[in-house]
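Handout, section B. The chain below has 233 residues.
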Amino acid sequence: MSHEPENLPAPLPAGELRASDADRERVAAVLHEAAGEGRIGLDELTERLDAVYAARTYAELEPLTRDLPSAGLPVAHETVVQPTDPARFGGEPTSSGGFALLGGFERKGRWVAPGRFTAFAMLGGGDIDLRQARFAERKVVIRAFAILGGVQVRVPEDAEVHVGGVGILGGFDSGAVGDGEPGGPVVVVKGLALLGGVSVERKAPDDVIKQRKLERKEERRRAKLERKQLKAP
């Protein structure tokens, strides 16, 4: 004799299921990236974002990114670079993004950076420090969106760095752009700066900088001592 419940309602189609806040944020990130690449204008970005945060179901979200490559369609010019140093690359990312509104966020120290990181700062600031990070993949793409705010990115000295993005009464600092060393990570920074800025700095870790200062101080001390010895009768 069957004990299965009777008259259960049929499951809803996937498109009618309720979307979560995380679902809406993922769609918003795709739209921000599309605006940074010039695929949609700021007016259209605002219009689509309004629709994103008003959406209640997957069916309402899906059309908002249907015409954008980042929605899941392959992009021909992007290539996957495999990790080469198991001591430095690989592992599960500990963070995939940062959000700052009238405040700030930071990712620094020994964390695992993902292949794609999205940073959004509005009337606030973000600090992304990759100098001591482990990389889930050799190539990390940082999509930075600074609106009346700023995002600072610090990269290792041996990193290969590419900086792009769109600046509207704002800009992207490309001073760190350049080739890295063999086996180093590849960092790509792109996005949108509207009345804000995104800076990229190539710099050694703080403990290395401190050690170098101590070494230079010791070198000066030894040089001073040697000069004194040469002058002595």
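Note. The longest strand covers residues 139-147. Compare this with the example in section A.
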